Amino acid sequence: MKSLADVQNALLAGAVHFVLPEVVLVGTACLLFVLAVVYPRRTAAVGLALIGLTWAVALTYSVGSGETTAFWAFVEGTPYSPHLLAAIDPTGLAALIRWLALASGFIFVLLAWPEIQDHNAGEYLGCLLVMIAGSSLIGRVNDLVSLFLALEMVSIPTYVLLYLPLRGRGEQEAAVKYFLLSILSSGVLLFGFSYLYGLTGTTNLGALLAVLSAAHQHAITPMALIAILMVIAAFGFRISAVPFQFYAPDVYQGGPTGVVAQIAFIPKFIGFVALVRVLGLVIRPQDGLPFEASTTLIPLVLWVMAIVTMTFGNVLALLQDDLKRLLAYSGIAHSGYMLIGIVVACGLPGNSTPALSGVDATLFYLIAYGLMTVGAFALILYWNSQERPIRTIDNLGGLGESHPLSAALMTVFLFSLIGMPMTAGFAGKFMLFVSAFEAPVEPPMQNLYRILAVVAAVNAAIGAVYYLRIVGVMYLRDPLHPVSSARRAVLPLFAACLCAIGTVAFGVYPRLIADSTQQATPLVEVPGNAAVVARM
Amino acid sequence: MSDPTNLALLALGLPLLATILAAVMGTCSTLAKWAHLPVVTAFAGSAILALLVLSKVMQATGSEVAFLSTAQTWFHAGNLQVDFQITVDPLSALMLMTVTFVGTWIAVFSVGYMHDDPGYARYFSLMALFVFSMCLLILASDLLLLVAGWEGVGLCSYLLIGYYYAKPSAAAAARKAFLVTRLGDVGMILGIFLFWQAGGYHTNFDKLFAHITANPPDSVTLTTACLLLFCGAIGKSAQFPLYVWLPDAMEGPTPVSALIHAATMVTAGVYLLARAMPLFVLSPDAQIVVALIGGFTAILSAFIALAQHDLKRVLAYSTVSQLGYMFMALGAGGPVSANLVVTAAIFHVFTHAFFKALLFLSSGSVMHAMGNVIDMRKFGGLRTLMPVTHITFLCGAAALAGFPLLSGFWSKDLIIDMVYQASEHGGSHATLYGLVFLTALVTAFLTAFYTFRAYFLTFWGELRTPPEAGHHAQESPLGLLAPLIVLAFGAVLAGITVEPFAHGFSNLLVKAPSVVLANSVLHVEAEATHPHFDFALAGISTLLALSGMALAWWHYRTGIETVPAALKSVYRLSENKLYVDEIFNGMFVKPAEWLAVLSRLCDGLLDGVARVVSFIPRLIGALLKPLQNGLVQFYALGMVLGLAVFLTVVVVRTSQ
For residue range B6-40, what is the model confidence (pLDDT) as tens digits? Predict the structure, then answer.
């Protein structure tokens, strides 16, 4: 039998095989930085970035489910759980997250096209690829240090990206604000992580959660609550949950549209994934959740955060005329909806098997949100031009007539954001609301879940007002400042088309994605080969 | 194709195909004038298929005959499972035959009648849809599928009565027909769901009947549900108090009236009750209500028909009255065994379809010649001018009046016999059935009188034509006359050949599953398979019919209407339709209008409330807006303070 040290060494040595696509992405990014100096051309940079992404996709595809098999093979014949030992854990969410990150990478490269020039193309796309690599890693890192590293692999390139297409004071202001507030949140995160390490003596996420769960069987450690609240606050910044949302409207309004599209999706995406991992919702510790509803107030904090976030986002979006600012508030509101799934998952007892575990609903909604929001930004990018910038809703007047295709795509995204049936937004909201309604009505949360679902439904109704207003302006109003019909880049339109196809396809047939999100978040994990077989 | 359900499905599909074809042809102006081709062909094809289906059903042996198509789930939600499935049993086969056969000849008549009309293709497309809906209704083996056909019929009646949509009276009549029948439909849907709930959550006829008869719910529920179901029949089959739409329905083209009155619409209610006989026989109280409503409607509308000036209106009221007869018969089920009453009702549907279609098409022929004038005061003595129409109308009128040996005589006599038997052994309701019996006799007399009044006023006396007629005033072309002649043979012979000696209907209907079940509920052995012929009753009704005809001859043979002074007030009452429309107007329409005004006030109020409510989110937003002040130090402070609040609350609560 292999000793513990053997297993640890094997896991450490084998870890590199679990991050090959990310290595390729970062390597391509390095090449791009070099290319930016020796051959500053936009087409070359985009081509190289696409090659890198394609290579990563090919690697991901060729690995398939082999990496989970390999992962379990390390501990075969030993009594050790690899979740408690490995720094990189390719089970559970990991594969799905990597696919999503890579897919979003392609979309963002398409969106980058109109915003980059020859002189900054290399840096821009290099940073983008590092971000993609970082967000792909979030799904599989199993260690506080590597988790922080992955998070910073997303944050630091974002600062650069916000600063790169420097045009005016507005953009500078946005970049600085984001930078300052982001490092504040990173600081809080590190603070929380250091407490967690101090309490448990390990940086391995699985081991850490197992220790905390075991400890919380007897008594709650207040220090652990402080630590986890700090972590939640830091992730709250990334998902723009109230009261950590302040930066979002200003940054969205001031930042370059293509980068804002990234900020609207990637930090939220990694924030939620990191949150569910740190709360132990994906691979549940054996002794139950460390911060569950019956013993701690953490789910209640998240509950309050969900309600306040969705309401804050919606009521402020009502008053907005600036399109990107409106989408910022809409993004805040949608984060509130997505928190529902996490609140529900926190309250589920370990042995229950509901149809929806909450986390899968959140994941589904995250995908739907990404499609519709990024699609909307892509269209803003497509319509925007130097002489006729798209800033306010009024700028969209008459688009239904002058740009019928793109206006129709925008309508699809807006309907999906409202949650109209046959769109991914509807399927996502439906899953979230159902997960909240089906959650067990037991003492700790009692009917709080139902209240949550009702508040969310009221919010969805409020949300419809401002989305429909945009549709109304596009189709019913004569153009005040007509969008110029000059030749424009078609790549963002192409990206929008892809997003719209996804929005409709996942709305009409949600199982396309719902099956994978459900498989990625099993409530009860079966160790060993059984799990591998179940995933095949 | 040997399975009759396949034939029936084809018979059902043909009119639908014709609907689509005719509608498509309507989009092209050169094709539009050929729109009748697919429709007439489809109807004829359906009629032939229906005949084949009927022969298959007749050949089938056994005490119970029913063929079911394979069930396809139409929709399924929780306890509610509705299948698309059709039933071919003696009841549906006979109805299908009647509808498609009469429908075919009406379509043939329409070709000549609607000639050169701008909406030619629309007309034929709707006709086909009308017949399709009716066939669906007949063949459905599920209550909710029947409702689909039922509502289709309602929709088509609306579209066809309002065919001349530019004419305000036509639009109003269409609306009236739709809304009034809709009123009954509400009750019907409630009844269906009451049965659904009480009947083990089945809407399939067989399963529902089996469940209800095995575990009958309490009598109040049962009677309520039956009466609610009957509400639908009251609306569709124009019974009191919802009959008011039918006389107005002749605003549509005359062949449409013929279709509505003879084949596709008003018989739906009769059919529904015949099909649901196992449910109704369980509730004697519901049955006596059915019989009483039928009787009251019959005599009321016969009375109104006495003094109408409009030829089609006389016919319309006569339809209402004849439908009343059918419900009298159905209401007698219970005291009398189910197979007999269903035979009587369906046999009357069958004969009525012939003579009423004939009468309407004949009056259409008159109208065609008189330049769309239908007021009997403006023309007369058309006997010489339109000899063929005269003879066919006479055939229809005599059949309707119950002239011995013609079709109407046999079926009406059977109904009167049923009601008489019910009054003989009607249990606690025997007296009431006796009342219904008397009503039926009086109505028989009135029917003969008003029918022949209309006949004499139109065809006897000196020749008078209205100025609108112009050079049209001549016998109609062969295209119009051919269907008349065919239907005239039907009106004369359809009765005698089928039932009184051959017992075609009674032998067949006794094998219908719902009738078998109803009989078993009543503990009646089907030994009295066919009705005996009661010579005394037949004699009385013959006497009544002949005396009514004689009175009409004596009074109206000049073709001019004179009213004796003593009867002036009664005449006025009849002429003004007993002021029922006015009473309804005062009782329902006016209060509804007041309610509408009141609702508008409430609406304004609610609107205000809604505005205030919708203002709240904006207000909250405006209050929160200063938080986003753009100062990064404030933002950082906000984040830290938020974290501090969370920490304080959680730590304090946990350490307590």
Answer: 888 999 999 999 999 988 888 887 888 888 889 99
Please state the domain count of chain A: 1
Rounded to the nearest angstrom, the minimum Cα separation between A333 and chain B is 13
Q: Residue B434: which H helix or E strand, with range? A: helix B430-459
- Cβ-based contacts of B618 with chain A (< 8 Å): 315, 318-319
Kindly state whether B638 is in contact with chain A, defined as any CB-CB distance less than 8 angstroms.
yes
Nearest to B313 by CA among B247, B240, B400: B247
Instruction: Say what the pLDDT of residue A293 is.
Output: 75
Residue B589: pLDDT over 50: yes
Beta bridge partners of B142: B204
Q: Is B632–A177 a contact, with Cβ atoms under 8 angstroms apart?
A: yes
User: What's the CA angle centered on A13, arms A11 and A18, to 5 degrees?
Assistant: 75
Tell me the residue range of the domain where A20 lies.
Answer: 1-112+116-164
DSSP, residue by residue, B540-551: HHHHHHHHHHHH
Structure tokens at A264: 């609207």
Has residue A71 been placed in a domain? yes
Q: Which residue of A has its CA nearest to B636?
A: A181
Beta strands B67-68 and B87-88: pairing type? antiparallel
Confidence at residue A444, expressed as pLDDT on a 0 to 100 scale: 65
Residues 6+ apart with CB under 8 A from B417: B344, B531, B534, B537
Preceding peptide of B404 cis, ω within 30°: no
CB A289 within 8 A of CB A212: no
A306 within some domain = no
H/E segment holding residue B220:
helix B219-236
Burial A16-53 (b: 16+ CB within 10 A, else e): eebbbbbebbbebbebbeebbeeebebebbbebbbebb
In whole angstroms, what is the distance from residue A331 CA to residue A239 CA? 9
Residue of B35, B156, B55, B69 whose CA lies nearest to B97: B55
Helix (H) or strand (E) holding B267: helix B267-275
Residues of chain A predicted below pLDDT 70: 166, 350-353, 441-444, 480-487, 523-536
pTM > 0.80: yes or no: no
- B618/A185 touch (CB, cutoff 8 Å), yes or no: no
**Could A230 and B639 be called an inter-chain contact, meaning their C-beta atoms sit closer than 8 Å?**
no
Among B191, B435, B188, B177, smallest CA distance to B316 is for: B177
Question: In three state form, how does the secondary structure of B113-140 look?
Answer: HCCCCCCHHHHHHHHHHHHHHHHHHHHE
Q: How many helices (H) and strands (E) does chain A have?
A: 22, 0
Q: How far apart are CA A79 and CA A4, in angstroms?
A: 9
Closest CA to B641 of A174, A184, A193: A184
Contact A316 B651 (CB under 8 A): no
> What ipTM does the predicted assembly reach?
0.89
Q: B650 — contact with chain A (CB < 8 Å)? A: yes
- In this predicted model, what pLDDT tens digit does every residue of A368-427 receive, in sequence order? 999 999 999 999 999 888 777 888 998 888 888 888 899 999 999 999 999 998 899 999
Report yes or no: B237 and B190 within 8 Å, Cβ to Cβ. no
pLDDT tens profile B350-381:
898 889 889 988 988 888 888 888 888 888 88
Minimal-distance CA residue of chain B relative to A466: B618
The answer to whether position A473 is within a domain reads no
**Beta strands B80-84 and B87-88: pairing type?**
unpaired
For residue A222, cis peptide bond before it (omega within 30 degrees of 0): no
Structural domain contains residue A130: yes
